[in-house]
UniProtKB/TrEMBL annotation:
It comes from Rhodothalassium salexigens DSM 2132. Residues 57-156 form the Methyltransferase type domain. SUPFAM superfamilies: S-adenosyl-L-methionine-dependent methyltransferases (SSF53335). Keywords: Methyltransferase, Transferase. Coiled coil: none annotated. This is Cyclopropane fatty-acyl-phospholipid synthase-like methyltransferase. One of its GO terms (biological process) is methylation.
C-alpha cells in the first residue's frame, strides 16, 4: 500500500488543495469537507446508539476525521484506529486534537495494511468510511471476514461503498482513484462472512452507507429508519441531503449517461 513521506504533510490548509493531495485534510478526501465527513460519521454512530462505554474500531481512520470527535466522546481506551499511514494520525494530533488527549483518552492505533484486525476483544461499532471505495473485491471479502470475527454480539459495522454496475476484481488498493461495487456483490460477500447487510438512506455526498450485523444482530425496522437521514439543513453545498428524490436522480445520472441514446439525453437536458 502506498504511503507518503511524513515531510509531505504540511501543517496549514492551503487554498487550491484537492482530494488526494499531501495534506492531512486532503489526503483523505475533499479538504473542504474534512469537518462534515467527520461529523456525519459521528452523527450516524450516535443515531445508531453509540454510548461512551462502547468499544469502537475505525478501519482506515486516516487523519481522524471521525476520530477527532469520537476520541473525546468515548471513555479511555475505547477508540481503536487502524491506519497504515501513521503520519496522518500524527498530523491530526498536531493540528486538530492536541497531544494531551492521547494521555487522557488513550486511543489505540495499529498500522497494519493487510485488513486484519490486530486488537484483542470485540467491538460494539466498527466504521469503515471510504475504504471499500478503494479495494478490489478480494480485499473487501477479506475485510468483511475480519469484521465478522471482531463484532461483539449485537454489534454493528457501518461501511460505505460506491455503488455501481461493476466490481473491481483482485486484492489491490486503488488510491486516490475509486472503484465501484455492485450492491449484490456486497450482500453476497457479507452473507459469505456470516453478516447481515442492509442499505441505509443516511446521506453521503458521494457514496452509500450500509449496516452490517452479526448473527445476533437485528435489522432496523421502518420506524427506526425514519430517524436515519443524515440531512443537513441550510448548507447549499449539501442541499441534496434533504431532497431524497433529487438524490435518487443524481444516483441514476451515471447509469443514464452510459445507457441512453444521445438524442434522448439531449432532449432530457433541454427540459
Ligand atoms: C479515503 S481515506 C478515508 C479515511 C477515513 N476513513 C475518513 O473517513 O476520514 C482512506 C484511508 O484508508 C487508508 N488505507 C490505505 N490502505 C489501507 C489498508 N490496507 N487498510 C486500512 N486503511 C488503509 C488511507 O491511508 C486513508 O487514510
Amino acid at each position: 500500500m502506498a504511503s507518503r513521506p511524513e515531510q509531505d504533510i504540511v501543517p496549514a490548509a492551503e487554498p487550491g488543495l484537492k482530494a488526494g493531495d499531501a495534506h492531512y485534510t486532503a489526503y483523505v478526501g475533499p479538504p473542504e469537507q474534512y469537518d462534515f465527513m467527520g461529523a456525519t460519521q459521528f452523527r450516524l454512530l450516535c443515531s445508531l446508539g453509540l454510548r461512551r462505554g462502547h468499544r469502537v474500531l475505525d478501519i482506515g481512520c486516516g487523519s481522524l476525521r471521525a476520530g477527532r470527535l469520537l476520541i473525546p466522546y468515548l471513555d479511555p481506551g475505547r477508540y481503536h484506529g487502524i491506519e497504515p499511514n501513521a503520519h496522518l494520525i500524527d498530523a491530526a494530533f498536531d493540528h486538530e486534537l492536541g497531544h494531551d488527549i492521547r494521555r487522557i483518552k488513550a486511543p489505540r492505533f495499529a498500522h497494519v495494511d493487510d485488513f486484519s484486525i490486530p486488537f484483542d476483544g470485540r467491538f460494539d461499532m466498527i466504521v469503515a468510511q471510504s475504504i471499500y471505495s478503494h479495494t478490489g473485491t478480494a480485499l473487501l471479502a477479506r475485510s468483511l471476514t475480519a469484521i465478522a470475527g471482531a463484532l461483539a454480539p449485537g454489534g454493528q459495522a457501518l461501511v460505505t461503498i460506491i455503488e455501481g454496475g461493476r466490481d473491481h476484481p483482485g486484492d489491490h488498493w486503488v488510491y486516490p482513484g475509486c472503484v465501484t461495487v455492485r450492491p449484490a456483490t456486497l450482500r453476497r460477500l457479507a452473507a459469505d462472512a456470516g453478516l447481515g447487510c442492509e442499505r441505509l438512506a443516511w446521506f453521503h455526498p458521494r457514496q452509500t452507507w450500509y449496516r452490517l450485523t452479526g448473527p445476533e444482530g437485528r435489522r432496523l425496522s421502518w420506524r427506526d429508519r425514519r430517524h436515519l437521514s443524515g440531512a443537513v439543513l441550510g448548507d447549499p453545498t449539501l442541499s441534496l441531503s434533504h431532497r431524497p428524490l433529487a438524490r435518487a436522480l443524481a444516483r441514476l445520472r451515471p447509469w443514464a449517461a452510459r445507457r441512453l441514446p444521445d438524442g434522448l439525453k439531449r432532449a432530457l437536458k433541454r427540459r
